[in-house]
Design brief:
The chain has 217 residues and is an alpha/beta fold. The chain contains eight helices and seven strands, in the order E-H-H-H-H-H-E-H-E-E-H-E-H-E-E. It is globular, with a radius of gyration of 18 Å. One of its GO terms (molecular function) is L-phosphoserine phosphatase activity.
């Protein structure tokens, strides 16, 4: 029986991996305005600091901040702002050159590109598509009656939730002749929020200061 070739997938984190810097805070500042952003940031600073040092729940802190910051805004405003911001990020091209080169190599090899990020899907989707990704996942904001609640729909896309998104996509996109074990996965990430994703991959890579290094398990 002929050997079935493996499906090859390259998974990339976004902020700090593909990009040189965080993209979420600048987006929220632009969307909410300086006064509201600073007011909400100061109000939630203790919880966010505790989460950052591992003494609090990072996902809960992020959600409470977003509820206070963007809750009550029309959904359409966020969508429009996301499209505009995606164009800005692509225009500025503040990407890590080595990572973009590696992404292009994967694409040239015929590998499927997937971007998985804790940043908001309203701009991650468009940027990932422009970079040639077959699929992208970002954190989604809950909407009720076309109004943002600020809560995270489906949770914050970091840590184990990144693996959950990837495996859910694999389960729905694999044909009957190919199991998950029939996939060969490369993964690239820069933070502890990518640890589970790197562990899930066959070829884990850590990005630090824009440089790619094979990660140790």
């Amino acid at each position: 029986m002929a050997e079935v070739s493996k499906r090859k997938i390259a998974v990339f984190d976004f902020d700090g991996t593909i990009t040189e810097r965080d993209t979420l805070a600048p987006f929220l500042l632009k969307f909410a305005g300086t006064t509201r952003f600073l007011t909400s940031a100061l109000r939630h600073a203790p919880a966010m600091f505790s989460a950052a040092i591992g003494a609090g729940n990072r996902d809960e802190a992020k959600e409470k901040f977003l509820v206070s910051l963007i809750g009550g805004r029309p959904e359409g405003e966020l969508v429009s702002a996301g499209i505009e911001y995606a164009a800005l990020v692509l225009r500025e091209e503040k990407f890590n050159a080595d990572v973009i080169e590696r992404l292009a190599w994967h694409r040239a090899e015929g590998h499927e590109i997937v971007v998985i990020s804790a940043s908001l899907d309203v701009y991650i989707q468009a940027i990932a598509a422009a970079l040639g990704a077959a699929k992208a996942f970002g954190t989604e904001i809950e909407v009720e009656s076309e109004v943002l609640t600020g809560r995270l729909r489906g949770g914050n896309v970091r840590a184990a939730n990144k693996v959950k998104r990837l495996e859910g996509w694999l389960d729905h996109s694999l044909d009957h002749s190919l199991s998950r074990e029939g996939c060969e996965i490369w993964a690239y990430g820069d933070s502890s929020g990518d640890d589970e994703l790197l562990e899930r991959s066959d070829h884990p890579h850590r990005v630090k200061n824009g440089q790619i290094k094979a990660a140790t398990r």
